[in-house]
Design a protein that fits this description.
It catalyses: IMP + NAD(+) + H2O = XMP + NADH + H(+). The chain is globular. The chain has 499 residues and is of the alpha/beta class. It folds into 2 domains: 311 residues, Alpha-Beta Barrel (TIM Barrel); 107 residues, Roll (CBS-domain). Helix 2 packs parallel to helix 3, helix 3 runs parallel beside helix 7 and helix 12 crosses helix 15. It contains 17 helices and 21 strands. The strands form 6 sheets. Strands 4-5-12-13-14-15-16-17 form an 8-stranded parallel β-barrel, surrounded by 7 helices. It has a 3-stranded mixed beta sheet with strand order 6-7-8. Strands 9-10-11 form a 3-stranded mixed beta sheet.
Length: 499
């Protein structure tokens, strides 16, 4: 009999609320290589992913670029709804039209416009010219930055000197197709257009620098593709009556899953929304939440959810536990809800509290099928927003959807506060350090997760879940001193690099 450590059942039934840092797994037996670990999993009842990563539906985390990159990596992004219906639909449409792992910032103008400064090109090698000056109208040509610099009369209208025969490729081309074509034609850049749109809408721009950058990144795994061959993209909606209209537009754009977004999901409002979705769109997977208890989970499972989002007050910018005195330690929440959800075949998304690869290992080993990440992704190139410098550090803004700043744009509905006269913040606004591209650091993170699973003796998520349920996977609680000892300590200074 193994008396070393505790079973999860015993550990999590002692009346304590544990976070990921509070617990540690004891090592198992290794009889397979690191690359023998399979991280494929289920997002929801009917959607499979090759890596267990989900980008959170936050307005400083997931828009087109994040959704595209996550799908290319084998995960999925959930597009936020702190915007208008048309804006969210446009983000979904753009993401679904991509087949390469990044989304460029596009700049548009009309033929009657003039370009007065090189700053108008921003970081783009060209400005696209359309009838109305936006991406939805017909493409008429482009102006390259190099051609503009050679102009003698920079006050001239664009129509006088634009290239009316721009080179374009269908957006259905994959990265190798685009890179190969550019190399054969010796092009500096090429526009990708959505051939399904009547106007041939420009959806992306690929430069020769992009092709070299992508070639230098870790090899991507299996992309997340739907039956139509397009990237899997999810979206969040609220529980208001107007969200039914919003969802109708998102379904038309081809979303693959919808997250019913509430900080406390066990409500009449969410239950009514779940019923509406299941009745109106029976083939669309519905993810309910957020929940942290068995009672909450069972209530939503009864309504037919296809996945559950677990976490309340565990995010780095969330203050729900502090302000409302409600929530649960994330390790306990994931274990408790997963134990119930597993009995019904419902995958669990561990949402919040992910700061490193070890937290991902813990979340998945405690029963979750995927992890949803906010701050972990927010400093990346793919996150919305621009970089700033604070105290010499390159950062991006990151805010909780419960912050007053986000609430002014509509996220107060997530906290059932859109009809309240007084707005009470359940989140903060902050900033996170530049992390580069997720196309680089997510593959390295997944390799670290594989090493964690190997140390546990689990060759897959399903194997880890079995070891946990059978009691073979043992845990212990760490004291404060043990947590200090388990991290970097005793040094005058150090640089923390994971890859």
């Amino acid at each position: 009999m193994n008396d070393d450590g505790f079973t999860a059942e015993r550990l999590f039934n002692q009346g304590y609320s544990y976070t990921y840092d509070d617990i540690i797994f004891l090592p198992g037996y290794i009889d397979f290589p690191v690359d023998g670990v399979n991280l494929s999993t289920k997002l929801s009842r009917n959607i499979s992913l090759s890596i267990p990563c989900v980008a959170s539906p936050m307005d400083t985390v997931t828009e087109t670029s994040m959704a595209v990159a996550m799908a290319a990596l084998g995960g999925i992004g959930m597009v936020h709804y702190n915007n208008t219906i048309s804006q969210q639909a446009s983000i979904i449409r753009a993401a679904k039209s991509h087949k390469i792992p990044f989304s460029a910032d596009l700049i548009f103008a009309t033929p009657s416009d003039s370009i007065h400064s090189a700053d108008e090109f921003a970081n783009s090698p060209c400005i696209f010219v359309t009838e109305s000056g936006n991406k939805q109208s017909k493409l008429l040509g482009h102006v390259s930055k190099s051609d503009w610099k050679n102009l003698s009369n920079k006050e001239a209208r664009i129509s006088a000197y634009m290239n009316t025969s721009p080179v374009t490729l269908p957006s259905s081309y994959d990265f190798n197709d685009v890179a190969g074509y550019m190399a054969s034609k010796k092009l500096d850049f090429v526009a990708l257009v959505n051939e399904e749109e009547e106007n041939g809408e420009v959806v992306n721009l690929v430069t020769s620098a992009d092709t070299e950058r992508i070639k230098g990144l870790p090899k991507l795994g299996l992309s997340s593709l739907g039956e139509d061959g397009k990237f899997l993209v999810g979206a969040a909606v609220g529980t208001r009556e107007s969200d039914k209209e919003r969802l109708e537009h998102l379904v038309k754009e081809g979303i693959n899953a919808v997250v019913i977004d509430s900080s406390q999901g066990n409500s009449l409002y969410q239950i009514n929304m779940i019923k509406h979705v299941k009745h109106t769109y029976p083939h669309l997977d519905v993810i309910g939440g957020n929940v942290v208890t068995n009672y909450q989970a069972e209530n939503l499972i009864k309504q037919g959810v296809d996945g559950l989002r677990v976490g309340m007050g565990s995010g780095s910018i969330c203050t729900t536990q502090e302000v409302c005195a409600v929530g649960r330690g994330q390790a306990t929440a994931v274990y408790k809800v997963s134990s119930i959800a597993e009995q019904h075949g419902i995958p669990v998304i561990a949402d919040g509290g992910i700061s490193n690869s070890g937290h991902i290992v813990k979340a998945l080993s405690l029963g979750a099928s995927t992890v949803m990440m906010g701050s972990f992704l927010a400093g990346s190139n793919e996150a919305p927003g621009t970089y700033e410098y604070k105290n010499g550090l390159r950062v991006k803004k990151y805010r909780g959807m419960g912050s007053l700043e986000a609430m002014t744009k509509g996220s107060d509905a997530r906290y059932l506060g859109d009809t309240a006269k007084l707005k009470i913040a359940q989140g903060v606004v902050g900033s996170v350090a530049d992390k580069g591209s997720i196309l680089k650091f997510i593959p390295y993170t997944m390799q670290a997760v594989k090493q964690g699973f190997q140390d546990l003796g689990a060759s897959s998520l399903q194997s880890a879940h079995h070891l946990l349920k059978s009691g073979k996977l043992r845990l212990e609680v760490r004291t404060g001193a043990a947590q200090v000892e388990g991290g970097v300590h005793g040094l005058v200074g150090y640089e923390k690099r994971y890859f």
